[in-house]
Design goal:
Pfam families: Cytochrom_c3_2. Keywords: Electron transport, Heme, Iron, Membrane, Metal-binding, Transmembrane, Transmembrane helix, Transport. The structure is a single chain. By secondary structure, the chain is an all-alpha fold. 36% of the residues lie in helices and 0% in strands. It binds heme C (4 copies). The site of one heme C has 23 residues, from α2, α4 and α7. The site of one heme C (HEC) has 18 residues, from α5 and α6.
Amino acid sequence: MASNLGKFFKPTILQSKVVIIGVMVILLTWLTAAFALDHRSVFLPGTTSEGHVLFEVSCNSCHEGFKPVTNETCMRCHEAEMAADAHGAKKFRDPRWAELLTKIDVLTCTACHNEHVHMFGRGVHLKPDLCMACHEGIITGDDASHTGFTRDGCWTAGCHNFHDHRSISTGFLRQNIDQLPMLPEPVLLERTVTGELEEAPTPDLGEEFLGSES
Ligand code: HEC
Ligand code: HEC
Ligand code: HEC
Ligand code: HEC
């Protein structure tokens, strides 16, 4: 009985070993060929961001061997844009903000701009409410003009750039570049002002001109 079982299994195990080794050899050959023949996109772990998709096959633009991608790599192409970085190293040298760096490592480009992963827009893979890690107060009462604003609107609504605070959001402008400069029929938005007073107030001239001295 035992020898019968042995006869049944031995060749099957041998066969499956051959198959596994065969598949591995084919895979290895295929991967080596892909590497050697410059079809490196098969090694991409995911979708590349919109801004970089044009040159994604040029892995060397960002990768040097198996080293992690550094800020220097990004700066090779983006130095000019980063010249007036409102959230750059210069700002965070101030010890007042040191603690904030523990929330998001803002000095490392890939903390917010990883690659080949899901992007929320403009090459940013952190959720759009990332500003709240440091600026929650802005919408919860520190700034009356912003109280009640949504958490994710700072840069997605077209108001702020993270890096370049001199201009309004260039990303937003780029996204809407195909919009007409003017509506087909320009209209003035209706203004609805609701007053609380029924009658004009009577001014107290003594108070207005002489202040509290009268
Ligand atoms: C625009 C720059 C850029 C280009 C071009 C690019 N990558 Fe990447 N890649 C990155 C960044 C940034 C990361 C994430 C940071 C890191 O892991 O160092 C990454 C991560 C990876 C990872 C995952 C590494 C890990 O640690 O998880 C692989 C694999 C990879 N890239 C392969 C490729 C291949 C293959 C190509 C070319 C076909 C390529 N990449 C082109 C920027 C780029
Ligand atoms: C804390 C997160 C964070 C870090 C860290 C970060 N960025 Fe950004 N970056 C953003 C956000 C959010 C946007 C989109 C809003 C905008 O356009 O400013 C952006 C936009 C950009 C843009 C597009 C600018 C434009 O006008 O559309 C470039 C280029 C860029 N980042 C490069 C870098 C480089 C280079 C570094 C490293 C020195 C870096 N970023 C570090 C969050 C970050
Ligand atoms: C070989 C040059 C090159 C390198 C290296 C490079 N980029 Fe870019 N990047 C570009 C170009 C070209 C664009 C598209 C034009 C633009 O939006 O400025 C772009 C666009 C972007 C955008 C805007 C995406 C959008 O949709 O608006 C961000 C963010 C960005 N790059 C961040 C980075 C970061 C972070 C690194 C380093 C990991 C990096 N880039 C490395 C050339 C480069
Ligand atoms: C890691 C913390 C951190 C994150 C995340 C962060 N900020 Fe800031 N931000 C700061 C600090 C610190 C200042 C300087 C505050 C000051 O000078 O009082 C600042 C200043 C600003 C300013 C004023 C710029 C100036 O003129 O100096 C704006 C606008 C701003 N941030 C917008 C944003 C937006 C939009 C986001 C998200 C895309 C964001 N911030 C994310 C820390 C952060």
